[in-house]
Specification:
By secondary structure, the chain is mainly β. It contains two helices and 15 strands. It has a single domain, classed as YmcC-like fold (Beta Barrel). 9% of the residues lie in helices and 58% in strands. The longest helix is centred in the first third of the chain and has 13 residues.
Length: 248
């Protein structure tokens, strides 16, 4: 498929931080948020939502459509269902579906009783040994936000084992600091994080979360290995029935 379309889709999939849990067993706030993305002239729109499945489980959904000159190129549908066990985020299942010019699919079923995750991509499947803290490419974000909300446990870096096809990949993020940024909704007070990579890795991923709006994803800026610059910015959102607005 178009390389720019792939880049925008991957940036939103792998680097977004839009729905996490409260510490101390407080319920998550349901929301719907819309985003605009760009990558060297390619436009994309995205919607992310968190809904409560039952008393202690939730579904985080993410959809994105990339287009050029008004022509749709690709659509991504992604979802994770998880429970909250005290302060622990426990993933149950995950799905990823890419359609359009190119097609791909990925699904994960977590069997915590057997300590095994069944990971499938297309016609291939693998059984991976689970250990506490292993997550999928959406549920790990819950743990980061939990640490940010519960500032008594906050650390400067966050590391996670994330199921990625036939392996569990370690990813690390660093807390940079706070910043006030301008957005289509006005100025928002945010906390900034960045992906930690090897010194030889030229890729850069920076993320801003809204401090006063439950750490809602506000902006992502990413440069990939080929130098392509990708941005994603919050356009509108309703959190727990309240319209998200800036400070001015």
């Amino acid at each position: 498929m178009n390389n720019k379309a792939t880049a925008v889709l991957c940036a939103f999939t792998l680097s977004s931080f839009a729905s996490y849990c409260y510490a101390q067993n407080a319920p998550l706030l349901e929301y719907v948020a819309q985003y605009e993305a760009s990558a060297n002239g390619l436009a994309a729109t995205a919607t992310r939502s968190l809904s409560r499945v039952d008393e202690n489980s939730y579904r985080l959904s993410n959809s994105l459509e990339a287009s050029i000159a008004g022509q749709a190129l690709a659509r991504l549908e992604q979802a994770s269902e998880f429970t909250i066990d005290g302060k622990r985020v426990v993933p149950l299942n995950y799905s990823y579906q890419l359609s359009g010019v190119s097609r791909a699919s990925h699904a994960i079923f977590f069997n915590w009783d057997a300590e095994v995750a069944l990971s499938t991509e297309g016609d291939e499947s693998w059984q991976l040994q689970l250990y506490e803290g292993v997550m999928d490419q959406l549920s790990y974000q819950v743990a980061i936000r939990q640490a940010l909300i519960d500032n008594t446990e906050i650390e400067p870096t966050f590391s996670f084992g994330i199921v990625d096809g036939d392996a569990i990949e370690m990813q690390e993020y660093r807390l940079v600091g706070e910043a006030i940024i301008s957005t289509p909704l006005g100025e928002l007070s945010t906390v900034k994080l960045e992906r930690v990579r090897e010194a030889s890795d030229e890729r850069v991923t920076e993320i801003w979360l809204a401090l006063e709006w439950d750490f809602l994803l506000t902006r992502i800026e990413q440069v990939n290995s080929s130098g392509l610059r990708i941005s994603l910015e919050l356009k509108s959102a309703v959190l727990d029935g309240n319209t998200v607005r800036g400070n001015n």
